[in-house]
Amino acid sequence: MLHEHIHHIGGYKGAVLGISWAIYGIKTYVDLRQLRRLQDPKVTLPVSIKGHISDDEYTKYQAYGKDRSRFGLVKGLFDQIVSTVTIVYDVLPKLWAYSGHVLAVAGLASAGELAQSVTFTSIALTSSTILGLGFAYYSTFVIEEKHGFNKQTKALFALDTIKSMVLTVVLSSPVIAAGIRVIEWGGKNFVLYAGAFVLATQVTFVILYPTVLSPIFNKFTPIEEGDLKTKIETLAKRVDFPVQSIYVVDGSKRSSHSNAYVTGLLGVNRIVIYDTLIEQMNHQEILAVVAHELGHWKNNHIFRSLLVSQAQILISFWSFSHFLHFQPLYSAFGFYSQPTVIGFMLFSYLYEPIDFLSTLSIYRVGRYHEFDADQFAKKLGYGEPLKSGLIKLGKKNLKNLNPDPVYSAFNIVHPPLAERLAAIGKSNI
Q1: What is the share, in percent, of the chain residues with pLDDT greater than 90?
Q2: What is the pLDDT of residues 162-220, one digit of tens each?
Q3: CA atoms within 13 A on the CB side of 256
Q4: Residues 371-416: pLDDT tens digits?
Q5: Is pLDDT of 247 > 80?
Q6: Peptidase M48 domain: which residues (predicted)?
Q7: Which amino acids are annotated catalytic?
Q8: Residues annotated in the binding site for Zn(2+), as ranges?
Q9: pTM
Q10: Fewer CB within 10 Å, N- or C-terminus of the chain?
Q11: How far apart are CA 104 and CA 85, in angstroms?
Q12: HSE-up of 380 (CA within 13 Å, CB side)?
């Protein structure tokens, strides 16, 4: 039995299990706070938005939130059990050995650690996706369907899943291989080299996402000639954004949730608006949302986020440098060699508390950026339409209307609706 195996575990493996379950306990406590808040009949909408959200709309928000919270709790427990089984029953060394066997069968037994690391990672990522398929299906075709958000067919779901698995393997393999080579080549100074490599990889994916990756899943159509396009171009020119293209993406084929974003890194300057947003808002509100997104670009929020991320990555690599060749850690988990990819995975277990706490700073920075972008839109004269647009988003998406403060701090980048409206300023809508 699992609990009998756990009882006899000590050392680094025992420490990792203790850390893992402690963090799981904290996350579960935070999630339960949110669920209790949604279930508490005494908790009502903040006064500042009570006049804009009807009782029926708030009831729908609570029902959707409760379903998502319960789903999250079940999935969290499942993931924790899988993680525990992986550690207790030495799944990782078995998977590493199996990866070597796969290479041997393919006639590549002499390919070395690099090929085995890529094979191991590909199998692990694919297995993780397959294990999560049931939850992904339930989330889409039960919860999202029940609350009127799902527009996705089962055929499209299957196609998306296959595309995602293939893309994950295709994109991760060269990154893993190059990352290992950089660490080996860097020697004692690998921290700075590996940090630079990760930064270059992040920037590359930021550029590739809107231009190459996202179009694999969605259709991007140039916005129709007309009043809205002219107004968006005028707005972009007003803030010196060198817009190259404005696209409408067919988000409605999967979900009725709405969104918009701006890309402006290394010459890739485009504005993307979901068709659902165009359906739900008037032109002034759409312009307000675009102004908010342009605020992220104008105020260098992407660059700042990359800096914060880079600082955290450098700290993690520096910490990893003390464990890379620490054989007792490898031995504790059943490894008698020191593959770099395995070393980083085992180190990640020990580093989890710091990684967990760092999410607080990431979300804090993210919330500051959201407030900052709201103020940018307000200064452009879009304060009122931004407020009405945010209220519509809250109603349509049934999210972030009145979350638990602790839950919000750990899980939500966007500030609660009431806080955003208060920051933008009072008005009569």
Answers
A1: 70
A2: 999 999 999 999 999 999 999 999 988 899 999 999 999 998 988 888 888 889 998 99
A3: 18
A4: 999 999 999 999 999 999 999 988 888 887 889 999 999 998 889 9
A5: yes
A6: 223-425
A7: 293, 374
A8: 292, 296, 370
A9: 0.88
A10: N
A11: 27
A12: 29
Enumerate the domain spans of the chain: 220-280
Closest CA to 416 of 384, 383, 382, 374: 374
Binding-site residue ranges: 292, 296, 370
- Cβ neighbors of 63 (< 8 A, separation 6 or more) are 147
How many other CB atoms are found less than 10 A from the CB of residue 86?
15
Question: Comparing 153-157, 250-254, 364-368, which segment has the lowest mean pLDDT?
Answer: 250-254
**So what's the architecture of 220-280 in CATH?**
2-Layer Sandwich (3.30)
Average pLDDT score, the chain: 91
Give the integer Cα–Cα distance in Å for 416 and 34.
Answer: 13
CB within 8 A of 394, min separation 6: which ones?
49, 53, 400, 401, 417
Per-residue three-class SS string for the chain: CHHHHHHCCCHHHHHHHHHHHHHHHHHHHHHHHHHHHHHCCCCCCCHHHHCCCCHHHHHHHHHHHHHHHHHHHHHHHHHHHHHHHHHHCCHHHHHHHHHHHHHHHCCCCCCCHHHHHHHHHHHHHHHHHHHCHHHHHHHHHHHHHHCCCECCCHHHHHHHHHHHHHHHHHHHHHHHHHHHHHHHHHHHHHHHHHHHHHHHHHHHHHHHHHHHHHHHHCCEEECCCCHHHHHHHHHHHHCCCCCCEEEEECHHHCECCCCEEEEEECCEEEEEEEHHHHHHCCHHHHHHHHHHHHHHHHCCHHHHHHHHHHHHHHHHHHHHCCCCCCHHHHHHCCCCCCCHHHHHHHHHHHHHHHHHHHHHHHHHHHHHHHHHHHHHHHHHHHHHHHHHHHHHHHHHHCCCCCCCHHHHHHHCCCCCHHHHHHHHCCCCC
